[in-house]
Amino acid sequence: MDIDDTDREILDSIERWAERELRPVARKFDHADEYPDDIVEQMKGLGLFGATIAPEFGGLGLSASTYARLVMSIASVWMAPVGIFNSHLIMAACVQRHGTDAQKRQWLPRFASGEIRGGIGLTEPNAGTDLQAIRAVARRDGDAYVINGTKTWITNGVYGSCFGVLVKTDPAAQPRHKGMTMFLCEKGEGFRAAKKIRKLGYKSIDSAELVFEDFRVPAANLIGGEEGRGFQQAVGGLELGRINVAARGAGIAAGALRDALRYAQQRETFGKPIAQHQAIQLKLADMATRVEASRLLIEQAARKYDTGQRCDLESSMAKLFASEAGVENSLEAMRIFGGYSYSTDFDVERYYRDAPLMCIGEGTNEMQRIIIARQLIERNPV
Ligand SMILES: Cc1cc2nc3c(=O)[nH]c(=O)nc-3n(C[C@H](O)[C@H](O)[C@H](O)COP(=O)(O)OP(=O)(O)OC[C@H]3O[C@@H](n4cnc5c(N)ncnc54)[C@H](O)[C@@H]3O)c2cc1C
């Protein structure tokens, strides 16, 4: 896929930055599960918090194709920092696509600079895949709404200050989605991060439970200004979201291949590098093929997205294949590293812990298969 010189320059500089700044510290931050403040400051300087925000609001305005490459390149070194700007950009995209002109002017420049950072609050303790089952409610009170409820697993929940939060403004509505509305909520009295969730992987980045207790949010923060559109606003970004998660999975798959390829040429058994044993070669070949296939599926979906074509089938296929590729390649890298794969002195154990998340986020892979099958049937009626 062709990209212009400016985008090429951005991608090259991000690649160099990831090698120079992320690779040396990734292991340390991951093992300490420590938030990388300095990296976040650098990401602000690189414009990553405005990567997909339109230039008129101070962002870089990258296409889905370029953004996916950027994500893949960072994730091949360390996936977690991608979540810090990606979840933030999902919130920003919601305002950019569905917000009123006043909301765009008020919020997007401060999102783009990273002055205000945050994410998206959809999931609740009892509702993930079945999003319409959420229980958080907002009740109108004068020129504000009063929100009560709990969100969980929210990326950037501790260190972020502003979130796109999906609630019910009409809990009795049928169909259920007609009673759902999205608000931009800034932390303050009645809205706090209650607990940081301890995780298998995707460390250093905070995932938290957010609690709303009689939290008053100005009516002006209702995204789009009209109740009942929140569900569409939340799921409307999923095609792009899936392309991004696919790029993270493909990044991990590529990182696992890169490390395994190097290690297999250095580690010797029975008088030769293990890369000369056919059993290892078969693994490397499958790993490389998965990376290339993921890349092509992502490019196909992103190209369709950028040209305004429908891409639900393509983005689901890319998400499904590339996220599974991340899991498979990280496990194969573990096998190639042998006992050393268990050592925290190498990165492959991190890839192995980080990869499964991509099979869950932006719609589980079970749901992706269902979406793909439905699309196949719809597009091929008998
Ligand atoms: C590290 C991390 C970060 C996250 N960040 C965010 C965030 O920033 N914001 C946010 O809102 N959420 C976030 N999430 C939540 C995530 O989006 C949900 O975990 C995900 O949507 C799945 O929901 P669930 O965990 O409730 O699983 P469930 O919905 O309970 O699903 C459990 C299992 O049942 C399957 N299943 C469910 N329904 C069906 C069906 N109809 N047919 C077939 N199979 C089905 C699922 O595929 C899965 O295998 C995050 C999660 C994690 C782990």
What does this protein look like?
The chain is of the alpha+beta class and 382 residues long. It folds into 3 domains: 5-113, Orthogonal Bundle (Butyryl-Coa Dehydrogenase, subunit A, domain 1), CATH 1.10.540; 119-233, Butyryl-CoA Dehydrogenase, subunit A, domain 2 (Beta Barrel), CATH 2.40.110.10; 237-379, Butyryl-CoA Dehydrogenase, subunit A, domain 3. It is built from 11 helices and 9 strands. It has helices spanning 5-32, 37-46, 64-75, 80-98, 101-113, 230-236, 238-266, 278-306, 312-337, 348-354, 365-379; strands at residues 118-121, 137-141, 144-155, 162-168, 180-186, 191-196, 207-218, 268-269, 272-273. The strands form 3 sheets. A 4-stranded antiparallel beta sheet has the order 2-3-7-6, covered by helices on one side. Strands 1-4-5 form a 3-stranded mixed beta sheet. A hairpin with a 2-residue loop joins strand 2 and strand 3 (144-155). Helix 7 (238-266) runs parallel beside helix 9 (312-337) and helix 8 (278-306) runs antiparallel to helix 9. The radius of gyration is 21 Å and the shape is globular. It starts with a helix and ends with a helix. The model has no long low-confidence stretch (mean pLDDT 96). The chain binds flavin-adenine dinucleotide. Flavin-adenine dinucleotide binds at residues 87, 119-123, 128-129, 153-155, 199, 202, 207, 357, 360-361, 364, 366-367, 370.
Features:
single chain; 382 residues; Butyryl-Coa Dehydrogenase, subunit A, domain 1; Butyryl-CoA Dehydrogenase, subunit A, domain 2; Butyryl-CoA Dehydrogenase, subunit A, domain 3; 3 domains; four-stranded antiparallel β-sheet; three-stranded mixed β-sheet
